[in-house]
Amino acid sequence: MDTIEVFKALSNEARLQILEWLKDPTAYFRPQEGVDLVEIGVCVSQITEKLNMTQSTASQYLSILQRAGLVSATRLGKWTYYKRDEEAIKKITSNIQQNL
Amino acid sequence: MDTIEVFKALSNEARLQILEWLKDPTAYFRPQEGVDLVEIGVCVSQITEKLNMTQSTASQYLSILQRAGLVSATRLGKWTYYKRDEEAIKKITSNIQQNL
DNA sequence: TCATTATATCGACGTTTTCCGATATGTCAA
DNA sequence: TTGACATATCGGAAAACGTCGATATAATGA
């Protein structure tokens, strides 16, 4: 768990926004054909749409969040679904709490 | 309390190092003529020395930490003493814990 | 007042980050 | 297989960051 990578990932308004939205996917995203937004996650297109940035940027930002261990990805057919990794986030915040 | 500024301040190895040292000043810094390292803080020269960077950089990094609310500064004579603002840090970490 | 010392600020330059458009890859359906 | 769609990756321009040396400011003491 590289703390600096986590802080870097969190040093960006758009990425914090994504994490925020993913806290309550059904509140922020349209329901998806036979996919449980909460269990599986939200696809890149929907995040791109809300972000008001290009698909390229959204994809890269999701990658950064994933590398930092804050979200996880699941590929299903054409779609990649991203969701928060609450376990990991709990470990990270408790680590920050303890060591900062 | 600007969260992003905090994360940016923490996205740097040297600045994290400074925060770490300031947790236990007497362990990492020489005693200072009639100044309580713990109560008043550590002066810029001593931090510069340990950082292995220039005085300019140390001063700027301390400024960044201060603007993020992580440390506070006290000027006494020629010296500026920096110490962790534990109150603020507690608020910040608890805020991260709660909102991340 | 002047020299000295501690700190802050300025200007610069290389590196990293931000964000984009273009294109490649993967997947499905016809 | 081909076309269409979702996502990832590449290459780049502009902004921000990391870090320095030089210089300005503040405080002290001779």
From TrEMBL, chains A, B:
Gene3D superfamilies: Winged helix-like DNA-binding domain superfamily/Winged helix DNA-binding domain. InterPro entries: ArsR-like_HTH, HTH_ArsR_DNA-bd_dom, HTH_MetalResp_TranReg, WH-like_DNA-bd_sf, WH_DNA-bd_sf. Keywords: DNA-binding, Transcription, Transcription regulation. PROSITE patterns: HTH_ARSR_2. It comes from the Bacteria. GO terms for molecular function: DNA binding; DNA-binding transcription factor activity. CDD domains: HTH_ARSR. Residues 1-100 form the HTH arsR-type domain. PANTHER family: TRANSCRIPTIONAL REGULATOR, ARSR FAMILY, TRANSCRIPTIONAL REPRESSOR SDPR. This is Helix-turn-helix domain-containing protein. The lineage of its organism: Bacteria, Bacillati, Bacillota, Bacilli, Bacillales.
